[in-house]
Amino acid sequence: MKSVFPSPLHLKGFYTLGVIFLMLLAVFPAKAQERAQPGVPILFDARERLPKPDLSSLVRLRFLTTVDFPPFNFSDQSGKLSGFHVDLAREICDELGVAEKCQIQSLPFEELPAALAASQGDAVIAGVAVTPELRQRFAFSRPYLELPARFVRNLHAAIEGTTASALAGKPVGVVKGTAHEAMLAAFFPAIKAVPFDDKEALLAAVRDGKVDAIFADSLQLSFWVSSEAAQTCCALFDGPYVSTQFLGEGMTVMLRAQDADLTAAINHALATLSRNGRLQEIYLRYFPYSLY
């Protein structure tokens, strides 16, 4: 996996992606695993041993999440809270031996920090971006998932080669004012960046051949290229590219600063799930078109 230097993660606003995800899940439920590429990278050093604190005195472990961030958290057709984060929270509870004390509750995204601070929950698992301001108030687990950037190319464009160097001098679309625009300029200066006002205009431009390729969030692009909206125009190209400077620290669990034992316990659980393959199994349920 190619690495460059990453900007703060802003993980909300995937309503269009959610519609695409649910449509694909309905159309391809049996074949998702068949088409899955090698999954989520292991973000924990295999030689590192993270301690497992004693949680026997824990009364309950309540995770807070949202319902409007598919495929991470959403309400399924029966109204049941579902998604990658929901399944991951349950696996964390199982690994820590507190499944009978585990609860998962959904709240509006903007209410999550205040609810955690007021002890209305014990941990937030909802794609909250790690920022310096939040680090002053809360603790965060180790990252369990990164959201890399990717190129998508138009299959009819005259691109010779299989790496980003083949895009030198060619028009590549990007949404202006975003971390991806800054990342593209910093690490691919030979590419001719073409700014667009929003994601919809960006996707339409590469589909219609107005640009040879685009550079954006891998999560959205991985679903879009396989959707009917793309009209089989395009394919993921090179990458993935990860960068803490431009794309943030990755997805983490947010906890109260004083809950050091619970933070350590969740780190232990995440490391175990990453190494034994259970995190990968959850990932493949919700990301049949690999981010990586």
Strand sequence of the main sheet, in spatial order? 1-13-9-12-10-11
Please estimate the helix content. Answer: 25-40%
The name of the CATH topology of the largest domain is: D-Maltodextrin-Binding Protein, domain 2
Question: What is the CA-atom radius of gyration, in angstroms?
Answer: 20 Å
Look at the structure and give the mean pLDDT: 87
Distance N terminus to C terminus?
8 Å
Number of helices: 11
Classification by helices and strands? alpha/beta
Known CATH architecture of the largest domain: 3-Layer(aba) Sandwich
Name of the CATH first level of the largest domain: Alpha Beta
Q: How many beta-strand segments?
A: 14
Major beta-sheet overview = 6 strands, mixed
Weakly predicted, low-confidence segments: 1-38
* Superfamily (CATH H level) name of the largest domain: Periplasmic binding protein-like II
How many structurally independent domains?
2
The rough form would be described as elongated
> Into which percentage range does the β-strand content fall?
15-25%
Query: Which sequence of SSEs, written as H and E, runs from N to C?
Result: EHHEEEEHEHEHEEEHEHEHEHEHH
